[in-house]
Amino acid sequence: MSEKDTPATRPGERITIREVAQDAGVSVAAVSKVLRDAYGVSDALRTKVRASMAKLNYRPRASARGMRGRTYTIGLIFPDLRNPFFADIYSGVNAALERTQYQAMQGINTTSGAVNTTSSALIEAMIDRQMDGLIVIGPNIDMQALINLGERVPLVVVGHHDRGGDAFDTVNNDDQLGARLVVRHLVAKGFRRPAMLSLTPATSSIIQQREVGYRLEMMELGCGEAINIVRASQVVRDVQVAVRRLLSDANRPDAIFCWTDLMAFEAISVATEMGLSIPEDLAIVGYDNTIFCDLAQNSLTSVDQSGELLGLQAARMLIERIDGRTSAEHFIVPPRIVARGSASATSEAE
Fold it and tell me: Could you report how far apart the first and last alpha carbons of the chain are, in Å?
């Protein structure tokens, strides 16, 4: 076969497993074992076969692989694309899958509310496409639905503290501690009336845990009378209205703890438009420690919950589930405060 007739240069034709075997100088059965990641395959054989697959641009049919047992694809379902924190999780998942045969396919849940038909439709579509397992981030479906899902397909849930027996694994930040650290940091810097800008509806377990942590630490530090939780949806206009109303109050807070960096950036914008100086008139703290916190115009103090680590652990646990682990595992990432200019000490405290 001449160079111009090699399989890799024939447009429109799909490379076969037999052609991969011929190029690698091995049997078809050997290529099949590598594709299945079968036990006993040597590193040398795996390297040789994968080199030929890359050279010929071989792509196994997902449907055929599914009939043999696995498709080596996993599904990720995100709540939305607006929050840069989810990019950190996605990066961690991809890093964990780098040296495996698995590929991650993502779906975006664009609907909010108590009953989320979009999320259910995405899940069913991924199962129909024979994905080997699912990672669901910030699920908006009830516990029984998650348990039922975990009984159908290997499942890891990120951002969900409620446990479902052995039906699924969870990966979380210690959200209650994270909120406590925020209040502790603010009070130590001289801010005695920090309010919390939370999410509505407050049905998510991570939101509930952060609100509990805020309340408990405020009471323990003697600031119980100043507890003030204001909730808004993730719609930009709703956040702006909530912040403006909060800062227009005669007894306005001297700090705002926002449940996510995305809300905190909006809070900074509104406060600046209202003529307030940050942090002299108002301290602002976010949650997630996303890349935009470091920008000079933000300089946002935030809680780091290690998004990449959450993604890494979620992918690891899902592959273990796919490989046969049936007992539940629950991974908790300890949070830490990353201090920046938006919540530095007040002049009175200094």
Answer: 80
Tell me the per-residue pLDDT of 239-289, one tens digit each, with 9 for 90 and over: 999 999 999 999 999 999 999 999 999 999 999 999 999 999 999 999 999
- The pTM of this model reads 0.79
Spatial distance between the Cα atoms of 243 and 240, rounded to a whole number of angstroms: 5
Band the pLDDT of 62: cuts 50, 70, 90: low
pLDDT 10s digits, 318-342:
999 999 999 999 999 999 999 999 9
b/e per residue 86-98 (b: at least 16 CB within 10 A): bbbbbebbbebbe
Domain 3-60 bears CATH identifier 1.10.8.60: no
d(CA 284, CA 185): 11
CATH of 73-173+307-334, one of 3.65.10.10, 3.90.480.20, 1.10.287.1700, 3.40.50.2300: 3.40.50.2300
What's the rounded Cα separation, in Å, for the pair 243 and 337? 23
Quote the tokens at residue 302.
Answer: 């935030």
CATH 3.40.50.2300 intervals, the chain: 73-173+307-334, 175-304+337-343
- Residues 286 and 293 sit within 8 Å (Cβ to Cβ): yes
